[in-house]
């Protein structure tokens, strides 16, 4: 089992009122799954992804990741955990504007203190695999949206995560680019990467092996 | 990793050119200031340390307490003190004495009677032991026995070259002085005067046993009077100087009890001063042998450099935290892909370090280019060699590193604590850093700027005041010609009448001291019937007939000198006051002086108004003038605009009459102004630094407002759509900054007042600090800030709101 959520909630206070962003979520994710989170805006898809990715915290309930109890961990240990096992892909790509394609992809390896020669090899591999070797010295602003998202995914994958979290990965792309990205996800999943994506699109959701519908912070159907 | 940091740092710097420009400019100015002041300060330290066992060499200094009158502190002693110390105390291994002959002679020196001579100052009569304590590097001859016999001299390489060219000079002779007082001296050595950094700075040495003043010093045995000898002793290694110091009171009493009582100096004390402290720690000791500096002045300069660098650092801090928004995304993403807080802090520190190191590299050539200007301002002789010195470079590198860390650490901590989720959740405005802290830093910058403006105004006012104050004599339109040879003395009347025939010459007079020289001679005098030991020190100047009308000094009572006068004197009003002589009794009063048991009488024949015969830093003290026929200066008052013609007429007349002394002249008003050269320099230095501080602060403000306006773009757009006018928008953007400048003004006012009040205490005659100086400084700072801020504010206010709203 990759992760288990047990009665997990996230409740915040806003203007004196308690708002329940996530309400008693129970979810088990096995390795190798490709899950699509669906639901209207504000239903809690992004919050659930962020909480699973440990960028935000559940305020209640249990979260176990690779048999480690995340809910009782210190911030520092969480950072270590997600650094090691989780990769993120964002709707707005979130590449670092001042770095080239190659350097953007290399960045996670720098923070893992991997040797220069090894870094070069890993980056070269992934550039090759994603067919963006020719773009390696360009800056993000010189790329199309689809190409930027490819770089974003390459960066997420470079440190070989067990889990890839993608929040509306095709939201800013045209349909052709969107299909390419989804096909890539499906391919990655076949190679063994567990993926959880949040999406509005039925067709995108269909690439997954499992669809979870959220409404007002609750899982309404699976 | 580091390479990655520097790479992204460099790209960031290049991307934000305005910001980088502002930061770099400030840091370069700061670093150049630091570098220049650093080499100046280093140049001023390390004096006298190259002498063997310099830490064991001391100068004896004298403090003469005179009851309730101010004590007389001098770097000199009576002649027999140093030899007596050596024979009394076993820990004194060596002693030597130096007499600065410039006080008595004009020091005319020439290679032979057939050639023109030069007035060469800094001639030291010295005991033969001088080179055992002070090792000068001999280029020719040997220090051993160089000054053992009478009429021997050791020249500096510079002087030897001036007199003889590049020839070998040992064994040759020079003629020192002129007429009846001329002496022939044999050269026994030449020393290198370029490489020594010493308070002594000799031009040439003459053996103490040479007839005249030296002979007098060698044989004089009074322990109380004639305190004009510089006395040095060297202690054996491990000797306890403090212990010796404690034995000095009984030492002076043992040798000179009776003499001290006779001279009215019962409170005379001797002090040991380390020679290595002389150059920087001689405040309060008069009669230094050369120009000394003051550690306070160096501290002041260092503080200025520090503040400029600090103001530049503040710009960096403010601008970096202000634009945290723009970097928030990068920080968030880095954290998501695995960056820890530590690695982000390191990244931002490397950015500020990179900037400060670039500033350092650029500042070195700039400093070298500025050195001639600096030398002009400080009367220094710094060269690029002073910069390319490992000590300076190491210090510079550490200053730059510290600057980078100081400027970078706060923004680094602020930026690295941005939470990634804030950024990734999109367009939330990030409140980075405490707005209060940034405001406090801006206030601090303006406190410095306003204080400096106030200081500059006051220092300049005081300087102007010293220039324009009625000194009691007229310094304008007067040249002073160097005299001082017996030839001039005997031909004075002829020269005078010849000069008066030159068109434009109004009057001619002569004197021992010129108005721009400190009157050093003095007599201890008393009134008939009073205790001869209760002396009043009266300064003494010898002048010719017509001195007072040439100088335009008011003769209040009595008459000018006439040819038959001998001991008759003319005194200033301060003398009457000091002796409590009523004005109507002045002309019937006689002052007395006892010397070697003989009483001399000085009848007062005239009273002059108090005039400033020393600088305005000192009070006008008692002074008497007597008729003197051996002038050091001839003063020519003129009324013409054609200076060139006048000087050439004077020169040809001089040469017709005098063949022993060269024609050299100065303009009296210029020389009087030079007395305040230090204040003038201070005023210039302060002006420069004030300008720099304001410039850097305003650039910072400019950058800050740019970001502020950028951040408020949407707010401004909405307000304008809702009908806000340009004025209200400008007001919205400038209001906060105006408040900051006002707060800074409130803080700076008392600080600047205290500092300037303290500084003005140095002057007996000084300006009052008026309120309008502060008002002017405040309004000035406010205006400068407003202009800076409104430039950006107006730009933001007149922009089309649609543009800003659409991009959101």
From TrEMBL, chain A:
<dbReference type="GO" id="GO:0005524">
    <property type="term" value="F:ATP binding"/>
</dbReference>
<dbReference type="InterPro" id="IPR017911">
    <property type="entry name" value="MacB-like_ATP-bd"/>
</dbReference>
<dbReference type="Pfam" id="PF00005">
    <property type="entry name" value="ABC_tran"/>
</dbReference>
<protein>
    <submittedName>
        <fullName>ABC transporter ATP-binding protein</fullName>
    </submittedName>
</protein>
<dbReference type="GO" id="GO:0098796">
    <property type="term" value="C:membrane protein complex"/>
</dbReference>
<keyword id="KW-1278">Translocase</keyword>
<feature type="domain" description="ABC transporter">
    <location>
        <begin position="3"/>
        <end position="222"/>
    </location>
</feature>
<keyword id="KW-0067">ATP-binding</keyword>
<dbReference type="InterPro" id="IPR027417">
    <property type="entry name" value="P-loop_NTPase"/>
</dbReference>
<keyword id="KW-0813">Transport</keyword>
<comment type="similarity">
    <text>Belongs to the ABC transporter superfamily. Macrolide exporter (TC 3.A.1.122) family.</text>
</comment>
<keyword id="KW-0547">Nucleotide-binding</keyword>
<dbReference type="GO" id="GO:0016887">
    <property type="term" value="F:ATP hydrolysis activity"/>
</dbReference>
<dbReference type="InterPro" id="IPR003593">
    <property type="entry name" value="AAA+_ATPase"/>
</dbReference>
<dbReference type="InterPro" id="IPR003439">
    <property type="entry name" value="ABC_transporter-like_ATP-bd"/>
</dbReference>
<dbReference type="GO" id="GO:0022857">
    <property type="term" value="F:transmembrane transporter activity"/>
</dbReference>
<dbReference type="InterPro" id="IPR017871">
    <property type="entry name" value="ABC_transporter-like_CS"/>
</dbReference>
């Amino acid at each position: 089992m990759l992760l288990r959520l047990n009665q997990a909630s996230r409740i915040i206070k806003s203007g004196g009122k308690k708002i329940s962003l996530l309400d008693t979520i129970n979810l088990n994710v096995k390795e190798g799954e490709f899950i699509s989170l669906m639901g209207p805006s504000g239903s809690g898809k992004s919050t659930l992804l962020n909480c699973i990715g440990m960028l935000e915290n559940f305020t209640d309930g249990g979260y176990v990741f690779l048999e480690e109890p995340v809910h009782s961990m210190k911030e520092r240990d969480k950072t270590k955990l997600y650094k090691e096992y989780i990769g993120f892909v964002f709707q707005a790509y979130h590449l670092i504007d001042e770095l080239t394609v190659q350097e953007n992809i290399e960045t996670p390896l720098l923070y893992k203190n991997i040797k220069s020669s090894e870094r070069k090899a890993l980056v070269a591999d992934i550039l090759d695999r994603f067919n963006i070797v020719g773009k390696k010295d360009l800056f993000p602003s010189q790329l199309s949206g689809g190409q930027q998202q490819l770089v974003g995914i390459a960066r997420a994958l470079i440190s070989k995560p067990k889990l890839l979290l993608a929040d509306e990965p095709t939201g800013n792309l045209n349909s052709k680019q969107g299909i390419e990205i989804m096909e890539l996800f499906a391919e990655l999943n076949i190679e063994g990467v567990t993926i959880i994506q949040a999406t509005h699109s039925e067709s995108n959701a269909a690439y997954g092996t499992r669809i979870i519908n959220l409404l007002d912070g609750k899982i309404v159907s699976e | 990793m580091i390479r990655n940091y520097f790479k992204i740092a460099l790209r960031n710097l290049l991307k934000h050119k305005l910001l980088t420009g502002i930061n770099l400019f400030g840091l370069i100015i700061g670093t150049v200031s630091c570098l220049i002041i650093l080499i100046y300060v280093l140049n001023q330290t390390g004096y006298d340390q190259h002498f063997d066992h310099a830490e064991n060499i001391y100068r004896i200094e004298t403090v003469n307490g005179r009851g309730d009158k101010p004590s007389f502190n001098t770097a000199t002693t009576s002649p027999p003190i140093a030899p007596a110390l050596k024979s009394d105390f076993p820990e004194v291994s060596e002693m030597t004495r130096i007499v600065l002959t410039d006080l008595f002679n004009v020091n005319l020196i020439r290679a032979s009677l057939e050639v023109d001579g030069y007035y060469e100052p800094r001639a030291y009569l010295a005991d033969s032991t001088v080179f055992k304590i002070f090792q000068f590097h001999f280029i020719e001859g040997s220090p051993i026995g160089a000054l053992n016999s009478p009429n021997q001299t050791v020249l500096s390489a510079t002087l030897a070259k001036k007199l003889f060219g590049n020839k070998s000079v040992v064994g040759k002779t020079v003629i020192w002085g002129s007429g009846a007082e001329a002496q022939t001296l044999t050269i026994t050595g030449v020393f290198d005067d370029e490489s020594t950094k010493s308070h002594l700075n000799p031009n040439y040495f003459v053996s103490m046993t040479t007839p005249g003043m030296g002979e007098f010093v060698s044989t004089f045995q009074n322990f109380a009077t004639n305190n004009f000898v510089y006395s040095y002793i060297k202690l054996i290694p491990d000797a306890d100087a403090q212990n010796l110091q404690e034995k000095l009171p009984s030492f002076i009493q043992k040798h000179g009890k009776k003499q001290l009582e006779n001279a009215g100096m019962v409170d005379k004390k001797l002090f040991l001063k380390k020679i290595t402290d002389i150059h920087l720690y001689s405040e309060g000791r008069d009669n230094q042998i050369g120009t000394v500096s003051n550690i306070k002045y160096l501290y002041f300069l260092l503080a200025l450099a520090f503040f400029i660098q600090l103001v530049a650092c503040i710009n960096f801090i403010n601008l970096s935290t202000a634009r945290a928004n723009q970097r928030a995304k990068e920080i968030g993403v880095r954290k998501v892909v695995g960056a820890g807080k530590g690695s982000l802090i390191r990244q931002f520190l490397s950015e500020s370090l990179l900037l400060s190191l670039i500033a350092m590299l650029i500042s070195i050539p700039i400093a070298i280019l500025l050195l001639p200007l600096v030398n002009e301002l400080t009367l220094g002789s710094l060269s690029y060699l002073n910069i390319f010195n490992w000590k300076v470079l190491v210090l510079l590198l550490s200053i730059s590193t510290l600057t980078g860390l100081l400027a970078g650490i706060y923004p680094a901590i602020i930026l690295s604590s941005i939470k990634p989720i804030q950024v990734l959740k999109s367009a939330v405005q990030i409140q980075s850093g405490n707005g209060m802290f940034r405001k406090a830093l801006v206030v601090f910058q303006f406190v410095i700027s306003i204080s400096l403006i106030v200081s500059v105004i006051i220092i300049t006012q005081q300087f102007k005041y010293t220039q324009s104050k009625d000194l009691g004599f007229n310094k304008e339109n007067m040249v002073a010609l160097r005299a001082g040879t017996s030839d001039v003395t005997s031909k004075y009347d002829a020269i005078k009448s010849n000069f008066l025939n030159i068109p434009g010459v109004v009057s001619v007079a002569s004197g021992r001291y010129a108005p721009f020289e400190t009157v050093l001679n003095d007599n201890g005098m008393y009134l008939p019937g009073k205790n001869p030991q209760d002396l009043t020190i009266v300064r003494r100047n010898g002048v010719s007939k017509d001195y007072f009308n040439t100088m335009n000094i008011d003769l209040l009572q009595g008459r000018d000198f006439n040819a038959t006068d001998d001991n008759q004197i003319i005194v200033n009003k301060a003398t009457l006051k000091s002796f409590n002589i009523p004005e109507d009794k002045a002309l019937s009063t006689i002052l007395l002086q006892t010397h070697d048991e003989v009483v001399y009488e000085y009848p007062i024949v005239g009273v002059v108004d108090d005039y400033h015969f020393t600088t305005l830093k000192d009070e006008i003290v008692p002074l008497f003038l007597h008729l003197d026929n051996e002038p050091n200066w001839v003063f020519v008052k003129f009324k013409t605009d054609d200076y060139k013609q006048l000087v050439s007429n004077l020169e040809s007349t001089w040469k017709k009459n005098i063949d022993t002394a060269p024609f050299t002249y100065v303009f009296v008003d210029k020389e009087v102004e030079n007395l305040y050269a230090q204040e003038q320099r201070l005023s210039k230095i302060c002006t420069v630094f004030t300008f720099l501080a304001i410039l850097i602060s305003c650039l910072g403000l400019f950058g800050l407002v740019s970001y502020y306006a950028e951040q408020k773009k949407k707010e401004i757009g909405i307000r304008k759509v809702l009908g806000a006018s340009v004025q209200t928008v400008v007001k919205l953007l400038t209001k906060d900054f105006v408040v900051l400048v006002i707060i800074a003004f409130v803080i700076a006012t008392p600080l600047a007042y205290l500092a300037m009040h303290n500084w003005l205490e140095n002057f007996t005659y000084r300006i009052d600090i008026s309120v309008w100086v502060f008002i002017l400084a405040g309004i000035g700072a406010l205006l400068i800030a407003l202009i800076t801020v409104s430039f950006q504010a107006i730009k933001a206010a007149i922009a089309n709101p649609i543009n800003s709203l659409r991009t959101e």
